[in-house]
Design brief:
By secondary structure, the protein is of the alpha/beta class. The chain has 11 helices and 10 strands. It folds into 2 domains: 165 residues, 3-Layer(aba) Sandwich (D-Maltodextrin-Binding Protein, domain 2), CATH 3.40.190; 113 residues, 3-Layer(aba) Sandwich (D-Maltodextrin-Binding Protein, domain 2), CATH 3.40.190.10. The chain is globular. The N and C termini lie far apart (75 Å). It comes from Cohnella kolymensis.
């Protein structure tokens, strides 16, 4: 009787396990999660990571504790190398990024051997735009007056950004100059580890202008500490930015969109990817996230994993063309 009972018990356990597996139920995530902003505090990546974790917790979309880590260096390239090589199987560490994940892989100087193909794209969440920003007391009131001075003697004008030469802030900064007939290689560009540090350099009179994203400049604009000479959007933005001209309005044929998204490790399992597909879609549809977008002056632009990956391939082609035009492609 014992043998029969034991056999019956073991059979039941096996069938239960089999049923559980077939049902596709997953216990992920079952421990705390980390979202990495591969930059210093205060920039677009940092703000995106903190907004993301805050709303996921507040909306109860993720039960586990979520924390943000800042890992600055090389405009995101330093941490991406670590992420691609040491965290490729760790689904408890995600990373936020934007065009630099492509730019750093394609540029000539300080090239990164790693790019978005060394991750699992989970979702695009927002879009933002570049901005050319000066201090509130700057003599410059329009983009052309700044570019005229750079054209006259580029050694006298210092422009800065929160990422390395050849990466996103640099592209935003030199693109108007290039389109204005200035050799982009002559522009005196100083890089900082993050948008917050670049703004501090501007306010501290260590730079005449910076190239950054408009959302990072928003609070300083509201406080009357900076002026925005132009934005890289195709059309004027609304709200606090309605009076800022686009580059095109200023007679400079250039535009640049800054998308932001979330990435997981390359070797993410199907159930882990499925969890984030569902969770990030729910985040995008929530009222709390819509309010967060408004508070940060971000434009909503959601793409699921498959659409995001396809879009990244298209972006890769576009960015390579821009870098070639600027003489910065590898």
């Amino acid at each position: 009787m014992w043998k029969v009972g034991a056999f019956t018990l073991l059979t039941a356990v096996a069938l239960t396990a089999c049923g559980s597996k077939e049902s596709g139920k997953s216990s992920y995530p079952e421990k705390p999660l980390v979202v990495v902003a591969p930059s210093g505090a205060g920039g677009g990546w940092d703000k995106t990571a903190r907004s993301l974790t805050k709303i996921l917790a507040e909306a109860k979309l993720v039960d586990q504790t979520m924390t943000v880590e800042n890992k600055p260096g090389g405009g995101g390239a330093v941490y991406l190398a670590e992420y691609a090589t040491q965290e490729s199987k760790n689904p408890y560490k995600l990373i936020v990024s934007s065009p630099p994940i492509i730019i750093n892989n394609l540029k000539k100087e300080g090239n990164s051997p790693y790019g978005y193909k060394d991750t699992t794209p989970l979702a695009q969440l927002t879009k933002d735009f570049g901005a050319i920003v000066v201090a509130a007391d700057s003599k410059y009131t329009d983009i052309k007056s700044l570019l005229d001075d750079i054209k006259a003697d580029s050694s006298k004008i210092t422009v800065a950004g929160g990422s390395a030469p050849g990466s996103m802030d640099h592209v935003i900064t030199v693109l108007p100059a290039y389109k204005y007939g200035i050799d982009p290689k002559t522009v005196k560009y100083v890089s900082y580890d993050g948008g917050g540090e670049a703004i501090a350099a501007l306010l501290g009179k260590n730079a005449d202008a910076i190239g950054t994203d408009i959302s990072s400049a928003a609070e300083y604009l509201k406080a009357g500490k900076v002026k925005v000479l132009a934005v890289t959007s195709a059309e004027r933005l609304g709200g606090d930015f309605k009076d800022i001209p686009t580059l095109k309005e200023s007679g400079i044929d250039a535009e640049f969109t800054i998308w932001r998204g979330v990435f997981g490790p390359k070797e993410m399992k199907d159930d882990e990817l499925a969890f984030w597909e569902k969770t990030l879609k729910s985040l995008n549809d929530s009222e709390a996230w819509k309010k967060e977008l408004q508070a940060n002056a971000w434009e909503p632009e959601y793409k699921n994993s498959a659409d995001f990956e396809k879009f990244l391939g298209e972006q890769e082609v576009l960015i390579k063309d821009v870098l070639n035009a600027l003489g910065m492609a590898k």
